[in-house]
Amino acid sequence: METITLTMPLDMHVHLRDGDMLNIVAPLTSYSFSGALVMPNLVPPVTTLEAVKAYRHRIKLAMESDDFEPYMTLFYQNYSREFLESVQDHITAIKIYPSGATTNSEGGVVSFDIEPMRATLEAMSELGICLCVHGETNGFVMDREAEFMSVYEKLAINFPKLKIVMEHITTRAAVEMLDRYDNLYATITVHHLMITLDDVAGGMLRPHLFCKPIAKRPEDRAALLKVALEAHPKVMFGSDSAPHPKSAKESCGCGAGVFTAPIALQLLCEIFEAHNKLDNLQAFISDNAQRIYGICAEYKEVVLAKHDFVVPEMYGEVVPMRAGETLRWSIERVD
Ligand code: NCD
Ligand code: ZN
Q1: Atom 9 (ligand 1) nearest CA
Q2: Superfamily for 14-259?
Q3: Cβ(41) to ligand 1 under 6 A?
Q4: Which active-site residues does the annotation give?
């Protein structure tokens, strides 16, 4: 049987939530990944050292394996250098959200004017703390990410030593930024490698594929696929797996987020195999992230085999992407 072994897979953008939801989803990520960059958009958001430590502790309790590292993040505010020094050993990055851009981002920034943020961003670059960015304006929904490119440029130029990660990129415009500035990097989700807006709303509305940033055009997906499949050294896998209860997705006000944590590796195998690029999956799923973030992941080997896996209809109260469908690859074992 055809198999592939992935060593130390990393998910560099995941929402693990809290409470009952954390207990459902954390074991799914810790089973097949060595580590994950955990987003801070809880209610209230993670903004203090105590909150980081307490959240990490709750994640550790919820996981079912010990060989998994939750890489913690703080929710961006204008933090003092003194505070950043006190927290730097406990976090891997700080995540900045435009206020209101997505789920639980109300406490985000209302403007990306550089001057009010300069002291914090300078301290971050001196201390080597990465800035992860949800890059969307409040413009027309299909244009929000492309419109945000001028903000990335401004940040990259003003803080040349700050590592800036363009999170969950969905457009050709964002892909084109990668080679323009040394300090810009990106995460790419598995769903944005597979779907376009047509899959979300071209036929019957598919709420479980609705996320921010919304899936874009075929040419955007093609640009994402190109850099993911070649494992461009500045791109990493970040699932943006974002669970919401079924009742919140199948409602007249559907929350943004696609839940992919338990099927991400299987889908990536399918995609990379279809393009004859399975050899590049290791770099996309782990090596690039370890180099970019300077992390040394917990040792873990995940063996995937080419046999069918039927995706469960639900994990707890969450409907995964591809629920009830058959995937061509499955996780054979984890060592
Ligand atoms: C995320 C969530 O639900 O927390 N939703 C999403 O659509 N991706 C937030 C985010 O990363 O935008
Ligand atoms: Zn996210």
Answers
A1: 103
A2: Metal-dependent hydrolases (3.20.20.140)
A3: yes
A4: 240
Measured between alpha carbons, how far is residue 307 from residues 6, 33, 220, 269, 275 in Å?
16, 20, 30, 12, 18
What is the structure's pLDDT at 298?
87
The string of pLDDT tens digits covering residues 205-252 is: 999 999 999 999 999 999 999 999 999 999 999 999 999 999 999 999
Expressed in angstroms and rounded, the spacing between residue 335 Cα and the centre of ligand 1 is 31
- The pLDDT confidence band at residue 143, using thresholds 50, 70 and 90, is very high
CB of residue 17 inside a 6 A radius of ligand 1? no
What is the distance in A from the centroid of ligand 1 to the CA of 7? 27
Count CB-CB contacts under 10 A for residue 113: 11
| Residue 212 CB less than 6 A away from ligand 1 | yes
Q: What's the rounded Cα separation, in Å, for the pair 151 and 296?
A: 31
Q: How far apart are CA 273 and CA 240, in angstroms?
A: 22
Local confidence band at 88 (pLDDT 50, 70, 90 cut-offs): very high
Ligand 1 atom having least distance to the Cα of 255: 3
Peptide bond just before 320 cis, omega within 30 deg: no
Q: Alpha-carbon distance 315 to 205, whole Å?
A: 22
Question: What single letter denotes the amino acid at residue 146?
Answer: A
Cβ of 40 closer than 6 Å to ligand 1, yes or no, is no
For 313-326, what is the mean pLDDT?
Answer: 98
241 alpha carbon – ligand 2 mean position (Å)? 7
Beta-strand pair 130-133/10-14: unpaired
Instruction: Establish whether residue 134 lines the binding site of ligand 1, counting it when its CB lies within 6 angstroms of any ligand atom.
Output: yes
Residue 200: nearest ligand to its CA? 1
Q: Residue ranges of the alpha helices (H) in 185-333? A: 191-194, 197, 218-229, 246-249, 264-274, 281-282, 288-293
**Cβ(94)–Cβ(128) under 8 Å?**
no
pLDDT in the model for residue 217: 98
Give the percent of the chain with pLDDT over 70: 100
